[in-house]
Design a protein that fits this description.
- The protein is α/β, with parallel strands linked by helices and 577 residues long.
- The protein folds into 2 domains: 318 residues, ABC transporter transmembrane region fold (Up-down Bundle), CATH 1.20.1560.10; 195 residues, Rossmann fold (3-Layer(aba) Sandwich).
- 62% of the residues lie in helices and 10% in strands.
- The strands form 3 sheets. Strands 6-9-10-3-11-12 form a 6-stranded mixed β-sheet, with helices on both faces.
- The two termini are 70 Å apart.
């Protein structure tokens, strides 16, 4: 399948370990057949009271073959598993590298639990592709051919029986398993992904479920999905057991056939009786090597299904350029930003989020973007950061098209504070050093003081997603991260919406001091303090309705003036009550 191309490439990267594991498996298989054949021959020879040196030679040969089989089997396991783990590492890295450029588009389309199931479960299941799909047929064919040639030197009829048995174990038994597998194809993985998705949903929302008294319903849903998964796993396990049982039946049937045919050939004088036990033991051993063929279709379909799900996750990457742009943005000087006829619409939405937006932000200018929720302000920031791609129009930085700029270079030149900022489990110091790792503790404490967080320590614990931080603390730590960066473009999306007026003024004063001479875009709902902005852009329903300085907009008494009057009335009304 085309979905397994990535697996083949990963296998080529580990070809040395793969070849060593195949060599070890071949030696182990042949040594196993030779060991049991020699044991059968030695047992038969003891009946005829052979010379002592014959028994010594046979006993030594059995011990040597046993040691060789154990050592080569160990080497086979070592190299095959090392190759598999290295391939999984390559696959995870490759998948994650393809996933990152698609964010947040993929994150908006896929539920977080489903993505987690794909990144962890589907990649993990691909380990079976080499160990249980690609590797066993190679070993089985080589060991069987060697055994058949060995057997044919004693009896061509028994060798033909071996061929019939191998065709049954390599084709008929897997075919029976495949027919049963079609009934449950992909169901286990789908059920597991659904369970992972719902568990993640319940864990994220357990607080709201508790508050609204819906936790019992959530638990019942999880139990129902878990029971469905257990039922599918039982069916899949039953199908595997059926294949293994049929294989064991065929193995013993062939062994009985070798015994019966060998007896007939001995009576006919075509075979010496001393070789019968040897051939029976050889049949038991060689078909033991073929046991993996019975379950091969199951693991093959499982690997294909997992690879297909991973491919579906990053299929949009095919539309991206095969090579990242090499253009870079200088971080030594503030950049100008120009949008020309930019239009963007979210997938599934009936109206565009932005409609033919044309704006120019000169280098070193300070611009505020205001408007009601849903007017497209945050989408504008996402487009400038190349987190999303406009459907029409062009965005240029320093007169260079965004399509020609490397994303990493673009993010390095920007000091960004978004509405939702992620905080990792660790300390305050760990979360501040995301910006750069060479800051001293004194510098970090100075920045914390600027954002009015002098009371906290750098060693204070931050829980996952900042659960132990208030919204105001989260915003100030995010601002501290931005203050620690060296970019000359500031993109701030509601950076102080959770702060009180006094704290907001103190924090923004320090920010404006550091951003003096830089290009700054500030998205906000509060209209207080915008007098110091060079320009204010007013947006509504994805369009620009007004633009100008604070004084100019107030003089026009248009949309911005009405918004300001409403804010004054709300603040005044709140003060009276």
């Amino acid at each position: 399948m085309s979905e397994l191309t990535i697996l083949s490439k990963a296998m080529l990267g580990e070809r040395k370990d793969i070849l060593l594991s195949i060599l070890g498996g071949l030696i182990a298989g042949i040594a196993g057949v030779a060991l049991f054949s020699a044991s059968g021959y030695m047992i038969s020879q003891t009946v005829f009271a052979p010379p002592l040196y014959t028994l010594i030679v046979l006993t030594s040969l059995v011990k040597l073959l046993g040691f060789l089989r154990a050592a080569s089997r160990y080497a086979e396991r070592l190299y095959s598993h090392r190759a598999t783990f290295s391939m999984l590492s390559r696959l995870r890295t490759s998948f994650f590298a393809k996933l990152i450029p698609l964010a947040p588009g993929v994150l908006n389309k896929k539920r977080s639990g489903d993505l987690l199931a794909r990144i962890v479960g589907d990649v993990e299941s691909l380990q079976n592709y080499f160990l249980r799909v690609a590797y066993p047929p190679v070993i089985v064919v080589m060991v069987f051919l060697a055994t058949m040639l060995f057997t044919a030197s004693f009896s061509i009829w028994i060798a033909c029986l071996f061929v019939l048995g191998m065709l049954a174990t390599a084709l008929i038994v897997p075919g029976i398993v495949l027919l049963g597998q079609r009934k449950t194809q992909g169901r286990v993985r789908k059920q597991r992904a659904q369970l992972s998705t719902e568990v993640t949903e319940v864990l994220y929302g357990f607080r709201d479920l508790k508050v609204y008294g819906q936790m019992a319903q959530g638990e019942q849903k999880l139990q129902h999905i878990s029971a469905a998964l257990a039922a599918e796993q039982q069916r899949a396990a039953g199908n595997l057991l059926r294949g293994q049982s049929i294989h064991a039946f065929v193995t013993f049937l062939i062994s009985w056939g070798v015994l019966a045919l060998g007896g007939y050939l001995i009576m006919d004088g075509a075979l010496a009786g001393v070789f019968l036990a040897m051939l029976v033991m050889a049949s038991l051993t060689v078909f033991e090597e073929a046991a993996a063929m019975a379950t091969l279709p199951v693991y093959k379909q499982d690997s294909e299904h997992a690879a297909k799900r991973l491919t579906e996750t990053v299929v949009a990457s095919a539309t991206l350029s095969s090579q990242q742009p090499i253009g870079k943005v200088s971080t030594d000087h503030p950049a100008s930003i120009e949008l020309s006829g930019v239009t963007f619409q979210y997938e599934g939405e009936w109206r565009p989020a932005l409609k033919e937006i044309s704006l120019h932000f000169p280098a070193g200018s300070k611009t505020a973007i205001v408007g009601p929720s849903g007017s497209g302000k945050s989408t504008l920031i996402d487009l400038i950061l190349k987190l999303r791609t406009p459907m029409a129009g062009d965005i240029r930085l320093n007169d260079v098209s965004m399509d020609e700029l490397n994303e990493t270079s673009l993010w390095e030149m920007a000091n960004v504070v978004l509405q939702q900022n992620h905080f990792f489990r660790g300390t305050i110091r760990d979360n501040l050093l995301l910006s750069r790792g060479d800051h001293t503790d004194k510098h970090l404490l100075d920045v914390l003081a600027k954002v009015q967080l002098s009371r906290i320590s750098l060693t204070d614990l931050v829980l996952e997603k900042g659960e132990n931080l208030s919204e105001g603390e989260k915003q100030r730590i995010a601002l501290a991260r931005a203050l620690l960066r060296q970019g000359r473009v500031w993109l701030l999306d509601e950076p102080t919406s959770s702060l009180d007026y006094v704290t907001e003024q103190r924090v923004m004063t320090h920010l404006y001091e550091q951003a003096a001479g830089d290009t700054l875009l500030l998205i906000c709902h509060r209209l207080t303090g915008l007098e110091q902005m060079d320009r204010i852009v007013v947006m509504e329903q994805g369009r620009i309705v007004e633009t100008g300085s604070y004084a100019e907009l107030m003089m026009q008494q248009g949309y911005f003036y009405e918004m300001k009057q409403i804010e004054r009335q709300m603040v005044g009304g709140g003060a009276e009550t």
